[in-house]
Design a protein that fits this description.
458 residues, alpha+beta, Porin, 2 domains
């Protein structure tokens, strides 16, 4: 199974070598992960919707959960709309819920693409029958498309934790950790007897994973005046899954990156989920030429920023290149360039209350367009890293104040290794927005923040 693997599975100087060479499965073992019927999966999806509704109705007693034949008929009759929920609900929690629908199928032996329709099914049923509000275009798009991304990432990570060869307390903690990541998969394992079964060999596809934990502080500046803002605590986890430079057949999400940064403090305005950024490979091929290794592919992207400086979210698809150029045994340059389309995005707008009078929750417009991403890192062996990251979003408004936006985010950072796997990092973020509107004055806005943190590589 290891035939065709490149010289090294090392993605960066921080990744530690394996104590012994593991045997990698390139797919789940079908003997122990059989494919269940469509009806069995559909029943799980429906049960998921029912369970969520029961919690909403009888635990939290939300007004939107007071459904019945009258609300169902009204939803079927009046049709679809663009809703007014907060950015976090529409662009984070709906994708997370979609990941649960997706994993009803993925954990039952279905492939990535075969699991996507079940995310659509779960969302469609919920939009019509799970709440009193009208079905929303944005919800079914985000729940299906970004839900597939969330679902596959959580499935892959839970597979990295699970090991059906283990017993005792180790097995318990593995199952518990995997259940936290993917509750739907845990329910399926319980129903299928997989929680307690013992296998003679590894049965799940697993890829090398770099995990970076970070904690420190960040300052939101007054505009772009360095060091003038309020300080808040920062926590983050950054994941690099799979080896993009291994020569092998590729399946969706054999390679992905996922970043989550949390913010805490009285100056964050309860915006605790600062940003979630990630992408996964859908199709691709790796080539080697001397000291240069490259992965060419088609990627799916997820972008979510929600802090006191700005709000933006974008679902993207496009082509990309991930490359590594070896300078020496312990030093290299790694880069990634992506160019894609954004079928659905959102960004905060100062004119949304004027155009859509009566909206008190949603402060962003719905839009679409394109995105460009670049990341370059100089790895200096045991010394540290120097990185430059750039995001560019070009968005045209669908719903909201008519116009176009060019939003750019530039993040240079440097990290210095202190000892072993612990490093000290500093990062600067510069945000700029140019908004050109048909009926309102143009907007030109710049803000910045800086971050200082400790990073632990696992």
């Amino acid at each position: 199974m290891n035939e065709g693997i490149s010289e090294s599975l090392t993605l960066s100087p921080q990744q530690q070598p394996f104590s012994e060479a593991p045997v990698w499965l390139w797919e789940d073992d079908p003997e122990y992960n059989k494919k269940y019927s469509l009806w069995a999966v559909a029943l799980k999806v429906i049960s998921t919707d029912v369970f969520v509704w029961v919690v909403d109705r009888f635990v939290f007693n939300y007004p939107f959960s007071r459904i019945g034949p009258k609300t169902w008929g009204n939803n079927l009759k009046t049709g679809w709309e663009w809703d007014t929920d907060r950015l976090g609900m529409n662009f984070f929690f709906h994708p997370f819920a979609g990941g649960g629908y997706f994993n009803c199928a993925r954990a039952d032996g279905y492939t990535y693409f075969a699991s996507v329709p079940f995310a659509f099914m779960g969302s469609l049923l919920w939009e019509y029958f799970g709440e009193t509000t009208r079905p929303a275009y944005n919800d079914i798009i985000n729940t299906t498309a970004s839900g597939a991304l969330f679902g596959e990432i959580l499935y892959r990570l839970s597979s990295s934790i699970l090991d059906d060869r283990k017993t005792g307390m180790e097995r318990f903690f593995r199952e518990f950790a995997a259940a936290i990541l993917s509750p739907g998969r845990a329910l399926g394992r319980l129903m299928q007897g997989k929680l307690t079964r013992i296998t003679p060999r590894e049965v799940y596809q697993k890829e090398p994973v770099n995990i970076t934990l970070l904690t420190g502080a960040h300052w939101f500046n007054n505009r772009t005046d360095f060091g003038t803002g309020d300080k808040s605590a920062l926590f983050g986890i950054h994941l690099d899954y799979g080896d993009p430079f291994e020569i092998r057949p590729r399946k969706p999400f054999d390679v992905f990156k996922f970043r989550i940064d949390l913010s805490y403090g009285k100056y964050v305005w309860k915006k605790y989920l600062d940003n979630v950024i990630g992408y996964g490979l859908l199709f691709g091929k790796t080539v080697h030429s001397g000291n240069l290794e490259m992965l060419f592919g088609v990627f799916q992207h997820y972008n979510y920023w929600d802090n006191k400086i700005f709000e933006i979210s974008a679902l993207g698809f496009g082509g990309g290149i991930i490359a590594k150029w070896r300078l020496s045994k312990n030093s290299n340059i790694q880069s990634a360039f992506h160019l894609g389309v954004v079928p659905l995005g959102a960004s905060n707008s100062p004119y949304i209350d004027i155009v859509e009078e009566g909206i008190h929750v949603r402060n962003y417009d719905y839009s679409g367009g394109g995105e460009v991403k670049f990341e370059g890192t100089l790895n200096l062996g045991k010394v540290g890293q120097v990185t430059a990251i750039y995001y560019l979003y070009l968005l045209h408004t669908y719903i909201g104040p008519s116009g176009d936006k060019i939003i750019s985010i530039f993040k240079p950072r440097i990290s210095v290794r202190l000892f072993s796997n612990l490093s000290l990092g500093f990062e600067y973020l510069y945000y700029h927005k140019d908004g050109s509107y048909l009926d309102f004055p143009d907007v030109h806005k710049s803000n910045s923040e800086q971050r200082l943190y400790l990073m632990l590589y696992l």
